[in-house]
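Hi C.,

You asked whether I'd gotten around to modeling the 317-residue construct. I have! Everything is below, sequence then structure, no commentary in between.
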Amino acid sequence: MTADDALRVAAHFGIGGVAAAELPGGWVNDNWLVTARTGGAAYVARRYGRMHVTRRAVFFEHAVMRHAGARLREVRAPLLDAGGESILLDGGAFNAVFPYVTGTTGDRHSTREAAALLARLHLALADFHAARPRATRTVGVLAWLRDRILRFAAQPALAQRLPWDELALALARAQTRIRERAGALPLTTVHGDPHPDNFVVDNARITGLLDFDFSHETERAFDVGSGMDAFARADEDGELETETALAFALAYHAAAPLSEAEWALLPDFMLRRNAFLIWYVVSRHGQRAFGEIGNADRYARRVVALDKLARTWKTPG
């Protein structure tokens, strides 16, 4: 995406821009800050990456944001064009425009505030019922991931890159633990990636929740575990700080009480997140250069450690 592309996309959604500047970050999507000609308001023109993105997925993401945005000031829904559409096909990819949220991202010290916002998001989405939802169940996801892990292990170019057998066993154990309590796990539409990079902080207050690319219906504890895993590390290669992870879960619990089954399985939901990232990173880098795994070893180490944590995990109280 170029500055001219960003201005053209913004204009389609009624924003006459005078300038566009590329925003940092964005693992897959291109994001450009567009300053409006009238009033100087700021917007984000987004071009979605082509990998694993369908119109149905973007439509669902936008529907979630509209529903949540009507109930939470921290969620900004995408703009609509003259025809009432929030998606524009331009440059061979899907595009959208969002209001810009002032502040910074990546603050790992807003643990409790982020957990409380995540709980409020789940409560706000309790009455969201999409006609064609993106939906998963963790038992099925773990089985699917284990199958992908075993396929990677069978490829000569990848066989020696990661401890595939150990990862497959960890996934199988997590699947068994969750299957035993699956019926006691509440479902909701989740954010899907409650990472510090997706929370906007301004003057020590969370002002925005971004990037609903991975939103889908599943066990709400998946979002809680994902937030615990993301906020309880000093950096992306850091060890899990269990006290911080527990603080995240307790802050969520104070706003939306977790069941006994959810508490017991939180390490397994952290494990699911990191196993998915192994598949995602290996697949993405493999498309660029066969046999490359990027930083997937980071997530493999996490899966092995979280499997051990799950076997010794003590729920609070």
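If it helps when you're writing up: Residues 111-312 form a domain with the Aminoglycoside 3'-phosphotransferase; Chain: A, domain 2 fold (CATH 3.90.1200.10).

Thanks,
B.
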